[in-house]
Amino acid sequence: MMGKEFAGALARFPHLTDLEVRPELVAICGRRLQPEVERWFRSIAPGIELATRDYREILARSDIEAVYIAVPHDLHAELYTAAIRSGKHVLGEKPFGIDAEANAAIRAAAAERPELVVRCASQFMYLPGAQRVARMLEAGAFGRIIEADLGFLHCSDLNPAKPINWKRRAETNGAYGVLGDLGMHTLPLPLRAGWRPLNVRALLSDIVTRRPNEEGTLQRCDTWDNATLLCEAVAPADAQAPAHPPEHGAEPAAGYAGQDEGAVQRFPLTIRAHRIAPGELNSWYIKVLGTRASAAFSTKEINRLWTLDYEPGGEQAWRRLDLGYESCFPAVSASSFEFGFSDALLQMWGAYFEEVVRGGVPRERFAGCFTPEETAVGHALFSAALRSQREGRVVPV
Questions:
Q1: Do residues 297 and 249 share a domain?
Q2: Confidence band (pLDDT; 50, 70, 90) for 254?
Q3: What is the pLDDT of residues 118-128, one digit of tens each?
Q4: What is the three-class DSSP state of 173?
Q5: Do residues 58 and 27 make contact, with C-beta atoms less than 8 angstroms apart?
Q6: Residue 211 sits in the same domain as residue 113
Q7: CATH value at residue 292
Q8: Structural domain contains residue 272
C-alpha cells in the first residue's frame, strides 16, 4: 500500500514548484512481487529498470542513490542497516526498528555514514493545520503550555472478523503493538518543538484477542490494540525552542525555562494511539492549551483549525479558521484549494529529497523530516510505556 502511495507521490512531484530535484523511480522490490503489481508500478513509473524479489539487487546498483523501505517492523534493522552500508540515502517507515535495540543498530549504521540522509517517514506534520500549530509553537504564541493532547485513531479493527495480519503479531510488529505503528506518528511535531516526555503512566488494552487467518481459523492476537500514555513533559518557555529535544537521560538544557526565569516548564501531555476507536476512520489530531493562546486540529476536519487567543481579563472564545492549500513547499494548487492526505505525503517527499540535495539540512525547522535521533526518543517512551503497563505505575522515560 505505502509503496503505491510513494510511486503516486513521485508521479505528482512536478506539482511542487520550487525544488531543485526531480526524483525518478527506477527499481522496485517485494518479497511476493506479483505480475499485476509490477505492471501497475510500471504504468506509474515507465523508467523502472529493475523489478526484483531480492532487495540486495537494488542495493548492489551504484546508480541508485536513495531507497524507500516499507516493510514489517521485524525487517527494519536488517534492511535499513544494509541500505545505509551500501551507501544509499534512506527513508524508512516507522517505528524505525521493532524495538529500542533495533533502533540503536540503525542509528549506529547511520552514524557511520553521516553524509547520507537517513530519515523516518511521517507525513502528518505537513498538514496545513499542523503547520499552523508548529508556527505558533515556534513563535511562543501559546505562552506557558497548560496541557497538550495528541493522537492517531483508527476504527477498522473494531470488526472482530477482520483477518489477522503482521501488525497483530508481536513476532513481526513488536511488543509495542499499536504504539510502534500509530504512536510514532504523534511525535514528530512535539519533539521538533523541543518537548520531551519525562515520565509516563501507560494504559494499554488488548481488546480483540483472536482473529481469523486466511483459512478462517482463529489465531491469537498478541499485540496491544489501544494505548493511552499520560506523560509529564517539559517544554521550552522561550520562543526560540531547540530544534531537537535534549538527549535521552540528559538534564533539560538552558532555555527550558518556566514562567519564572530558570524554572522548568512542565505540563501534562496525553498521547493516544488506538486501532479500535469507534467512528474514527483515520484521524490524527493535536490540541494545545496555553496561557495566551490555544489551538486544536484534527484530520476529521482536515481544512479547519480552531484557535483561542486570550488577553488577560478578556473574553474566551474559540475561533474557526478554514484553511486552504498552505504548505511548506509551494505547489501549483491555488491557496483557495483544499488539502488532502496525498498532498501531505507529497510534501513529506519534497522535504526528504530537498534534504538529500542540501546535505541533510532542511529549509525550516518544521519542514525537515523525522530524524533517527528523534525516533530514539519515541523508543525510549514506548519502552517505558511497556514497563509502566507491567508494573502499574509511573515510569521515568
A1: yes
A2: very low
A3: 999 999 999 99
A4: helix
A5: yes
A6: no
A7: 3.30.360.10
A8: yes
The cell for 290 is: 496555553
In a domain, 360, yes or no: no
Q: Give pLDDT, residue 372.
A: 98
Say if CB 83 and CB 49 are below 8 A apart.
Answer: no
249: pLDDT strictly greater than 50: no
pLDDT of residue 156: 86
Looking at the structure, do residues 187 and 324 belong to the same domain, yes or no?
A: yes
**Cα–Cα distances in Å, from 243 out to 349, 365, 370?**
20, 6, 12
320 and 234 in a single domain? The answer is yes
Give the per-residue pLDDT at 33: 93
Q: How far is it, in rounded angstroms, from Cα 119 to Cα 241? A: 21
CA dihedral 222, 161, 97, 59 (to 10 degrees): 140
pLDDT in tens, 9-56: 999 999 999 998 999 999 999 999 999 999 999 999 999 999 999 999
Sign of torsion, CA 352 97 124 192?
Answer: negative
Q: Are residues 102 and 139 in the same domain?
A: no
The answer on 29 and 172 residing in a single domain is no
> What's the distance, Cα to Cα, between the start and end of the chain in Å?
33
- Residues 387 and 334: their CA atoms lie apart, in Å, by 49
pTM over 0.85: yes
Total number of domains in the chain? 2
| 95: preceding bond cis by omega (within 30 degrees) | yes
357 domain residue, yes or no: no
Has residue 269 got a pLDDT over 50? Answer: yes
Do the domain assignments include residue 217? yes
What is the enclosing helix (H) or strand (E) of 270?
A: strand 265-274
Give the length of the chain. 397
- Cell numbers found for residue 6: 510513494
Structural domain range at position 141: 127-335+372-396
Euclidean distance between CA atoms 167 and 154, whole angstroms: 13
Which of 71, 89, 120 delimits the end of a domain? 120
Rounded Cα distance, 365 and 187, in Å: 15
